[in-house]
């Protein structure tokens, strides 16, 4: 009898916790129920790289939320700097996370990268252990997930609201690469072609200011790919050969050239500068749409935004 009671009690416990698990994992608001969670979505890789209209709309909303978080983080970080003379990286991380989640994303698409000063030369830095100080740039790579669709945006700005001469020189090269890569992203080309163009723009730009002499040296300063598929995962369809796929309308990926100059390469006046500019794009019938286009990236536009503190929310 005792044995039977124990079994019954165990069954009740299992039922209770299973019901609780199902309830918490599938619970959604009355206004918007969406299933299944992305862990359960299975699609053939080649097909999954192409997004339909509904998916692109979700990604557009994800970029809207994340892009506004970047804009507010820019304004708040500079305001904090002007009040205190420095800003902890972790405080900028907190601003981004708050802005993204309060606007409708259930979670971040990946851990925020908030890298001040020389930390920006370390790819995917996410320690948040340092303080952004006078003269530093802050590189922020951040995006949320809206209904399981990711965004991935990077901007780099001066914490005091004004780029220095050498920072402008490097920024101009990265911006040129970003804009030209977007211009050539269209049906019929490949990410490999876009990547090679980014490398050439950066090589020539660094050569013009005397940092790069050998064509192979560019890899010391731009050591990552120009972009990756994006969708349900921030690095969507990892097993698909991104390089040689002929781009078609509906392909979604990032454009993210960068230059990173640590204290072991380049002229000393450029040491500690890390700059990346990243946008999310979708290939259209005659070119591409930049889903993150509203987030300022022109030098003068960023400086104007950083110094207009009347618009802080």
What is this structure's SSE topology?
Blueprint: H1 2-26, H2 45-48, H3 53-84, E1 87-88, H4 89-102, E2 107-108, E3 113-116, E4 131-132, E5 137-142, E6 144-146, E7 149-150, E8 153-158, H5 165-184, H6 191-208, E9 252-255, E10 258-261, E11 273-276, E12 279-283, E13 288-290, H7 299-307
Antiparallel strand pairs: 1-4, 2-6, 3-5, 5-8, 6-7, 9-12, 10-11, 12-13
Helix pairs in contact: 3-4, 5-6
Structural summary, described in words:
With 313 residues, the protein is of the alpha+beta class. The chain has a single domain (52-311), classed as Creatine Amidinohydrolase, CATH 3.90.230.10. It contains seven helices and 13 strands. The strands form five sheets. The protein has a three-stranded antiparallel beta sheet. The chain has a three-stranded antiparallel beta sheet with strand order 3-5-8, with helices on one face. Helix 3 runs antiparallel to helix 4 and helix 5 (165-184) runs antiparallel to helix 6 (191-208). The model is unreliable at 1-43 (pLDDT under 50).
CATH class: Alpha Beta
Strand content: 15-25%
Unreliable runs: 1-43
- Strand order, main sheet: write it out: 2-6-7
Q: What would the average pLDDT be, to the nearest integer?
A: 86
- Provide the domain count: 1
CATH architecture: Alpha-Beta Complex
The largest sheet, given as strand count, sense and whether it forms a barrel, is: 3 strands, antiparallel
| Count of β-strands | 13
What would you give as the CATH superfamily?
Creatinase/methionine aminopeptidase superfamily
Query: What is the assembly state of the chains in this entry?
Result: single chain
The amount of helix comes to 25-40%
What is the end-to-end distance?
66 Å
User: So how many helices?
Assistant: 7
Rg is 22 Å
CATH fold-level name: Creatine Amidinohydrolase
Structural class: alpha+beta
Shape: globular
Order of helices and strands: HHHEHEEEEEEEHHEEEEEH
């Amino acid at each position: 009898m005792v044995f039977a009671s124990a079994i019954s009690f165990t069954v009740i416990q299992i039922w209770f916790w299973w019901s609780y698990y199902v309830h918490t994992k599938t619970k959604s608001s009355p206004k918007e129920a969406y299933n299944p969670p992305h862990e359960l979505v299975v699609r053939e890789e080649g097909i999954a790289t192409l997004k339909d209209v509904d998916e692109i709309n979700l990604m557009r909303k994800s970029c809207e939320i994340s892009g506004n978080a970047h804009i507010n983080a820019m304004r708040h970080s500079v305001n904090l700097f002007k009040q205190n003379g420095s800003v902890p990286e972790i405080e900028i991380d907190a601003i981004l996370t708050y802005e993204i989640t309060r606007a409708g994303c259930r979670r971040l698409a990946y851990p925020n990268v908030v890298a001040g000063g020389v930390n920006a030369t370390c790819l995917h830095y996410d320690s948040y252990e340092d303080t952004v100080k006078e003269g530093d740039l802050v590189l922020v790579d951040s995006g949320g997930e809206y209904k399981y669709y990711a965004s991935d945006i990077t901007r780099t700005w001066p914490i005091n609201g004004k780029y220095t001469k050498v920072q402008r020189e490097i920024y101009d090269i990265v911006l040129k690469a970003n804009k030209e890569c977007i211009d050539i992203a269209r049906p019929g080309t490949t990410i490999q072609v876009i990547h090679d163009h980014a490398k050439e723009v950066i090589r020539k730009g660094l050569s013009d200011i005397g940092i790069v002499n050998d064509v192979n040296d560019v890899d010391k300063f731009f050591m990552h790919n120009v972009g990756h598929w994006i969708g349900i995962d921030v690095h969507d369809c990892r097993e698909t050969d991104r390089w040689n796929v002929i781009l078609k309308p509906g392909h979604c990926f990032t454009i993210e050239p960068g230059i990173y100059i640590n204290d072991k390469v380049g002229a000393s006046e450029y040491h500690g500068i890390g700059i990346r500019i990243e946008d999310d794009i979708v290939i259209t019938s005659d070119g591409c749409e930049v889903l993150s286009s509203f987030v300022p990236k022109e030098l003068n536009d960023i400086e104007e935004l950083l110094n207009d503190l009347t618009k802080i929310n």
